[in-house]
Amino acid sequence: MVRLVERRTRLISVPRPALIALATVRSRLRASEFGMPALAIGIGVLAGLCVAVMTTLVDAAHVRIFGIPFDVTLSAAERVAPLAALGAPMLGGLLLGVIDIWLARGKAAPAIDPVEANALRGGRMSLRQSLLVATQTVISNGSGASVGLEAGYAQIGAGVASYLGARSRLRRQDLRVLVGCGAGGAIAAAFGAPLTGAFYAFELIIGAYSLANAIPVFAATLAASLTTQAIIGAPYDITAPAVAPLTSLDYGALIGLGLVAAAVGVGAMRVAALIERAFRWAIPWRLVRPVVGGLMVGSMALYTPQVLGAGHGALRLDFYWPLSAGELTILIALKLFACLVSLASGFRGGLFFASLFVGSLLGKLYSIGVDFSAPWMGLETTACVLVGMSALSAAIVGGPLTMTFLVLESTGNLGVAGGALAASIATTLAVRATFGYSFTTWRLHLRGETIRGGQDVGWLRDLTVGRMMIRSPQVFPADQSVRAFREAYPIGSANVVVVVGEDGRYQGLIHVPEAHALVFENGGDEGPVGAVAHASATVLHPDQDIGAALEAFETAHTDTLAVTARGTDQVLGTLGEAYAARRYAQETNLAMKGVLGGG
Question: Is the pLDDT of residue 268 over 90?
Fold first, then answer.
């Protein structure tokens, strides 16, 4: 054992005392009640630093490339030089196309985002991939593409958390919580809103809320928010004027706004898939695709710079700027189309703040409609703007509580936060009933995944038939007689025997007690044993998960099934329903203990 440790030490060039000290720190970290919160605070500080660095780089790029004053955000600029508006997104797209081709030639695996990592991989992410995604996001937003930085913020925050958690050898559930701390901390730092970041982690990344994960998540989001505030201030902070108390009629009208937002969000997500397919069909070259996307976004920017970037500057501007219904409709259509074109053509980024911006415009447009049709209601425009922000974001990003707390932390008004909650719940229910996905999970669905959120289902996929089956089962030739079978397998010698053909292919199963209980007349037991075998048409394969196995048992109405290789029908083993159900119950119990903080 000492030799192995010494050999490993030489390979990684770490002194033995350092390894011992590291192991001691790890054990104390896992054993102490203060270990996870302390680690979460460190993750929050790092996430806040990453947000500050990325924001500073992008702001400097906007000032340098587009020639805007340093105290004016890109989307709030009065105008942008046509050469910069067209050239910057195209050059940024060209750089991203070069990176895409480089990754394709290197056969690099696609980057794993925090939701997919927590749902399928137990929180494990690649720090190198996360750094690459953050870099691509900075290039995309810095060149003016209509995407936000928040996806890059969350990616790098979660990637750092996963890296440190894996090096600390945290348990699966602890690592998932730490990934939520990193992603939630990054969002909290971006908006200067610790509660928003915490519920972003609970609803979207971890997929559950419990006292076990509340303390580290809140510690991380608070630390991240304070860190970024101390360095550059919150990049995406939202301020709003005071709102009068809402009446019951106001709540009804705002729920109607939530349903309108659900329709717009579902429509945008469906159109996103169509635009992406159109780009792939019309422009098969990876290098050219983002360049064309940049040209389209730049062309729209000639009409209004508000389509550039995430749109947080435009949101602040339009909050108070009087806009007609026609102008609002055009802005909504242009911003949504610019966002979808940017993502479909190959730019990296998120729709979190873009959905907030479009939602604010939608709320203002809805207010104009209500004032025209029911002027006696006196519905405040500010309330519609704030609720429209939360509702459309709940439709596209998900997380009704996340969006509600964002409104609450932005306004400090419990009444308007209640309206945002009512509208967001209505939006979420409508989206689930008609579509079923948020934008993140919809894009995963287009890649063939079926997850609906960050809930941990990876253990279910990891528990495969190949891991559970009994290997090298007892077999018997199908052309041998029943009598020969009885002689070879007397009662008590085995429970189930697999019947195979001359080429070794699966033919069915024989239960030994049933074979001895069969009654034949006039020497009928000289017939082939394959004739009395059952379950010949139902088999399992080693790559199937336990869910598929339990469904197969229920369909076949049998307590044992054979496991065969796909395409060859060669017998690999057998699996019993009772054992599969017991393993499923054990893993479910472990998963629940992790969520609730036990074990």
Answer: yes
Q: Please spell the DSSP secondary structure of 150-205, one letter per residue.
A: HHHHHHHHHHHHHHHHHHTT--HHHHHHHHHHHHHHHHHHHHT-HHHHHHHIIIII
Q: Token pair for residue 149?
A: 């930085």
Distances (CA, A) of 332 to 238, 307, 493: 19, 9, 74
List, in sequence order, every residue forming a beta bridge with 534; answer none if it has no partner. 509
Q: How many CA atoms lie within 13 A of 242 on its CB side?
A: 2
Judge whether residue 2 has pLDDT over 90.
no
CA angle 297, 361, 91 (to 5 degrees): 15
Among residues 269, 311, 278, the alpha carbon closest in space to that of 296 is found at: 278
- CA-to-CA dists, residue 340 to 271, 277, 307, 315, 477, angstroms: 8, 12, 11, 19, 61
**H or E element at residue 562:** strand 560-564
- Whether residue 252 is predicted with pLDDT greater than 90 in this model: the reply is yes
pLDDT at position 24 over 70: no
For tokens 């939520």, name the residue.
Answer: 180
Residue pair 155/179 in contact (Cβ under 8 Å)? The answer is no
The pLDDT assigned to 220 comes to: 96
Contacts (Cβ under 8 Å, ≥6 apart) of 416: 243, 246, 382, 383, 386, 387, 407
For residue 387, CA distances in Å to 207, 258, 457 come to 24, 8, 33
Residues 40 and 219: beta-carbon distance below 8 Å: yes
Indicate the SS3 state at residue 475.
strand
455, burial (CB in 10 Å: exposed 0-12, middle 13-18, buried 19+): middle
Pairing verdict, β 496-500 and 571-576: unpaired
Give the confidence band of 297 by pLDDT, cuts at 50, 70, 90: very high
- Look at residue 245 and tell me whether its pLDDT is greater than 90: no
**Among candidates 580, 574, 492, 480, which has minimal Cα distance to 531?**
480
Structure-model confidence comparison of residues 416 and 554, the more confident one: 416
Chain segment 500-556, per-residue pLDDT in tens: 888 888 888 888 888 888 766 555 677 788 788 887 778 888 888 887 888 888 888
- pLDDT of amino acid 578: 84
Beta bridge partners of 562: 574
Whether the Cβ atoms of residue 525 and residue 533 lie closer than 8 Å to each other: no
**Token output for 49:** 């630093």
Domains and CATH numbers, the chain: 21-231 (no CATH), 248-455 (1.10.3080.10), 459-590 (3.10.580.10)
Compute the 3-state secondary structure of the chain and give helix, strand, coil in percent, each to the nearest 5.
Answer: 70, 5, 25
Tell me how far CA of residue 88 lies from CA of 7, 33, 104, 275, 448, in angstroms.
53, 50, 24, 22, 34
Whole-prediction pTM? 0.81
d(Cα 349, Cα 144) in Å, to the nearest integer?
11
Q: Alpha-carbon distance 3 to 298, whole Å?
A: 63
